[in-house]
Each structure stands twice: as C-alpha cells, then as structure tokens.
What does this fold into?
Amino acid sequence: MLPKASIHKLVWLGLCVFASLLAACGGGANPQLIGSYPKGPASSPTYPPPPANLLVVHNAYLELEVGSTDAAAQRATQLADDYGGYLVSSQSWYADSRKYTTLTLAVPVAQFETLRQSLLSLGSLVGERVSSDVVSITGYGADAWNTFSTITVQFRPALPSFSLPSVTGPGWNPAQTFEQAFRVFVSIFTFLVDIVIWVVVVVGPFALMGLGLRALLRRLRAR
It folds into this structure.
C-alpha cells in the first residue's frame, strides 16, 4: 500500500496533465478552414456556335459625288464583275443639266466589304446606309460565295469649284499683242489712204472744173 504522500503526488500530477490537455483543446487552437469559394472572377459562360446554315447578309446604299457619272458607273460595273458579282439594274436622269446615275450591284457575301471599299474610292462619300439580315442557306454548296448581298450606289456630279480668273491669262504674250494691234492700225490707215486717193482721182477733176467755171462766171459779171 502506497503512503499518503505518494498518493497526493499522483493525484496532483494527474490534475496537472488534465489541465494541460484542456488548454491545448481550448481557444488557443487555430480554426481549420472546412470549405471556401474559389477566388477570382467567375468564368465566362460559353454559348454554342450559331447553326452552320445561318449567314449574315449585309446590304448597303451609298451616295457618292464624282467628277464623271458615266466613268464612275462604268468602273463600278467592272468592279462588281471582278469580285464575282453582276449589275442588277441601272437608272440615269438629269437635274439642272447634271446627270445622275444609280446602280444596284449584286456581289457574293464574302466579297461585300471588298467591293464596298472599292466603290468608296471612286468619289467622295455623301451618305451611307447599311442593313443586315440573318438568312438560312440551304442546298448543296450553299455558302458565303454563292449567297449574294446587294450594294446600291448613286453617283452625283460634283459641283464645279469656283476660281478667280487669271490676271494675265494663260499664254499671254505682249509682243504678239503689239504686233496684232499694229496690224489693225496699218489696215485702218491704208483704208483711209485708199479713200483719199479715190476722192482725189475721181472727185478732184470735177472739183477743179467747178472752181474754174465759178471763177470764169465772176469775171464775166465783173465786165
């Protein structure tokens, strides 16, 4: 049997160990993260691609100011042909003695923007409208190369620019002007001399005869 002092020591040691265990399991322990949301922005939603049989078709209306409507219309028709398109319709009219021309061109959807930029280079842009439609393409081989957009372009003649007339004018030559003026003077002078000669030759003898007859009559009256 253990003495009382040993029993007291064992009890005291047990109490100390129990107190230490309570301190370790108390507020001094760090809380553990059970779960958390992912950091950073949420991933963008993904959408399925549009159906393969749908195509965006653009159609445009352009107003261009050009130097020559005929030349611009001819060039625009050639451009449409170069890009796999064709001329749908053409219309021309006159206003204030100035010619206006409107063309409607069809071009493959894949060449729409290329033809549009080429047409804009023909003159100065006055106005533009562009519309878009989503169309369903069906049939074997239907794609952006055999589906057509339209571009309607109106060519209007540019107004003539006002410029002040030149002071001297192109090709001004003072020596040539003096020569022309001298020739006119000589022509007028010779014409006057010719008149004097005609008067002296034709009228002179009759004038002398008249003067002589008058002098004779005066002498006869004096007698």
Remarks:
- The first helix runs from residue 4 to 24.
- The mean pLDDT is 78.
- The domain at 54-157 is CATH 3.30.70 (Alpha-Beta Plaits).
- The radius of gyration is 56 Å.
